Amino acid sequence: NKLYGLLGHPVGHSMSPLMHNDAFKQLGINGYYHAFDVPEDKLKEAVDALRLFNISGLNVTIPHKVTIMEFLDEIDEEALMIGAVNTVVNIEGRLIGYNTDGRGYLTSLLTKLNKPLKDSNVLVIGAGGAARGIVTALANDGVALLTIANRTIEKADEIKNHYLKYREANINVLPLKKAQLNLARYDIVINTTSIGMSPRVDEVPISIDHIKQTAVLSDLIYNPIETKLLQLGNKKGIITHNGVGMFVEQGALAFLKWTGKQPDTEKMTKIVMQQLG
Ligand code: ATR
Prior knowledge:
Blueprint: E1 2-8, H1 16-27, E2 31-37, H2 43-52, E3 57-60, E4 74-75, H3 77-82, E5 87-91, E6 94-98, H4 101-113, E7 121-125, H5 129-140, E8 145-150, H6 153-164, E9 171-175, H7 176-181, E10 188-191, E11 216-219, H8 228-236, E12 239-241, H9 244-259, H10 265-276
Parallel strand pairs: 1-2, 1-3, 4-6, 7-8, 7-10, 8-9, 10-11, 11-12
Antiparallel strand pairs: 3-5, 5-6
The structure holds 2'-monophosphoadenosine-5'-diphosphate.
Pathway: Metabolic intermediate biosynthesis; chorismate biosynthesis; chorismate from D-erythrose 4-phosphate and phosphoenolpyruvate: step 4/7
Function: Involved in the biosynthesis of the chorismate, which leads to the biosynthesis of aromatic amino acids. Catalyzes the reversible NADPH linked reduction of 3-dehydroshikimate (DHSA) to yield shikimate (SA).
Enzyme class: oxidoreductase
């Protein structure tokens, strides 16, 4: 029996245990996934314990995604570029850190679009941890026109400059207000901030008055499933994309790294949707 788990604080509302344990069952894998509630100052002890008990794989969430990096034996390049780890694989005692958030998001978005992103003009709203994953995955995937808009411009600059330490890319940075005025330029608009997340369900990160009718409006938030921002997009009749797919796909990519098997993401989505009510 192989053991897997989530390290975070809090973890009580996590949908990952149900999602992964069901996938183990579906695929006939003798595995078990448990959510470990690890306070911020206990992370090193937790990682030592996981080594001792030979846990096979982990997900990592807030507040440990950045701090866990120093306790691992190896970090994958995309995780280094993002500057955070959300997945750990234990290979014969060596703990290797990955980040499946950006790639999970990209997989979900591409499934929705059904065409490559290469020629799209993409706007990323926000410059927190979630934005880092998205910007890295989009730039690594070859998006030619990428803009980060943030209230605090320095944080957007920081993401851009961190990326450029690793690879070349054409990344623009804008204050949020300016992006709002120029919104008609973008083919894909992605909210990576927590604005609109429960309980702040009446707030939007940006006005979409000027958005293109052919644009795709995407929000990383999945609670609520349809944020105020996406509601406004739907009212306009544009294509919208919520955060459920990213959650499922980041989990599926982690599962694949742990087990070598691709889980059924449709079944995973059903489980997540049931949980979200
Ligand atoms: P993370 O992505 O790491 O979870 P977060 O705290 O959820 O981070 O979100 C941070 C992002 O939301 C930042 O881009 C932040 O803008 P600043 O860098 O200017 O702080 C943005 N954000 C949060 N509240 C905001 C608000 N009221 N108006 C505009 N942007 C806001």
